[in-house]
Specification:
This is Glycosyltransferase family 10 (Fucosyltransferase) C-term. By secondary structure, the protein is α/β, with parallel strands linked by helices. The protein folds into 2 domains: 107 residues; 199 residues, no CATH class. The protein contains 11 helices and 14 strands. Strands 2-1-3-4-6-5 form a 6-stranded mixed sheet, sandwiched between helices. Strands 10-7-11-13-14 form a 5-stranded parallel sheet. Helix 4 crosses helix 8. It is globular, with a radius of gyration of 21 Å.
Length: 340
């Protein structure tokens, strides 16, 4: 059994922080609190190296067989803060000496290569539980029903997300098809035209931080449910394997997702083609989207088909259970390889 110590200021944002994944790893991996018991120490953000580099160096110096792993679930963090988001084996310079570490992230590991259900939706059962009743409802609607819904929607478009304008938040790695989209989606939100456009989130509207809400995900779904024709679903980062909850939120609330995905992006295998609008361009260029744009019958038919597909996907726990097993097996393989 592999013994792992999770460490750092961001330890609550990595696969081993989530009960469904930890439970699936039972018998294969054990979390420990003492570095003298650990075979692997994980951190979750490049900032952890900056904050705790000397302490980590001392841990490894005291136990030569101990391995340090930057296990990152966030391409946003990797691309905005890490000098190299791609190399598997790297070295960080500390005052005490060079600190070798391995990197496991969306870019270089199979951990996050979803087959049916993206990683983020596996981290807490509430996400799929929130989707199920809405997708069941939506699956019963015909293309004609959706045309009427979109025609009479209360809002032409809705957006929820923090307004970001800092250059740090739009990194570009063209050779890897990795693009920061935080500034892009903020600009898209600003430029979107329509008679009724709803913009929510830090920098757009007043209110407490979403993270302070008892259930920020449920709150979002309730705010937008059957109220918008289009809903912004842009990720903060375009990375080929990174798909969050956002496009699923749009389908669950009965809105057409506005998204950004290149030809090799995972969303094309996870979501049916059609039923969502893709604004992919290289480099990313936000244009003024007119959200009064009517939805065609062909688009409504594709949308209805995707709703039926998603309702079927989440109708039973089997796909999520299989995906959890895939994640656990991939984590185990990666850690075992680092120890061999």
């Amino acid at each position: 059994m592999i013994r792992v110590l999770t460490f750092g200021a961001f330890r609550n944002r990595q696969p081993l922080a989530y009960a469904p994944i930890r439970d699936r790893l039972a018998g294969r991996l054990r979390l420990v609190d003492d570095p003298t018991e650990a075979q692997i120490v994980t951190i979750s953000h490049h900032k952890d190296l900056e904050l705790f580099g000397n302490r980590l160096w001392q841990m490894l110096a005291a136990r030569p067989g101990l391995r340090l792993v930057l296990l990152s679930e966030e391409p946003f963090w990797d691309s905005c803060w890490a000098p190299d988001p791609f190399a598997r084996h790297q070295v960080f310079a500390t005052a005490s000496g060079p600190l070798p570490y391995a990197v496991l992230n969306h870019q270089n590991s199979a951990i996050f290569q979803a087959a049916q259900v993206p990683y983020f939706l596996l981290t807490h059962p509430r996400y799929i539980a929130h989707y199920q009743p809405r997708l069941d409802r939506n699956a019963g609607r015909s293309a004609t029903d959706w045309l009427a819904q979109f025609r009479d929607a209360e809002w032409d478009a809705g957006f929820m997300g923090e307004k970001r304008t800092h250059e740090r938040h739009r990194p570009a790695w063209p050779a890897e098809d990795l693009w920061g989209l935080s500034v892009y989606r903020s600009r898209f939100t600003q430029l979107c035209t329509g008679t009724r456009v709803l913009r929510l989130g830090k920098g757009w509207s007043d209110g407490p931080p979403r993270q302070a809400l008892p259930d920020w995900h449920q709150d979002k779904l309730e705010r937008f449910d059957l109220r918008c024709r289009y809903l912004g679903a842009f990720e903060n980062t375009h990375q080929r394997e990174y798909v969050s909850e956002k496009i699923y939120d749009a389908f669950a609330t009965g809105a057409i997702p506005l998204y950004f995905a290149g030809p090799g992006h995972a969303v094309h295998r996870l979501i049916r083609p059609g039923g969502w609008r893709n604004f992919h361009a290289v480099p990313p260029r936000p244009d003024a989207f007119d959200a009064r744009r009517p939805v065609s019958l062909a688009e409504a038919e594709a949308y209805a088909a995707t709703q039926q597909h998603l309702a079927g996907l989440f109708a039973t726990p089997r796909p999520a259970e299989a995906e959890l097993e895939r994640v656990a097996a991939a984590l185990t393989r990666e850690f075992a390889a680092l120890l061999s």
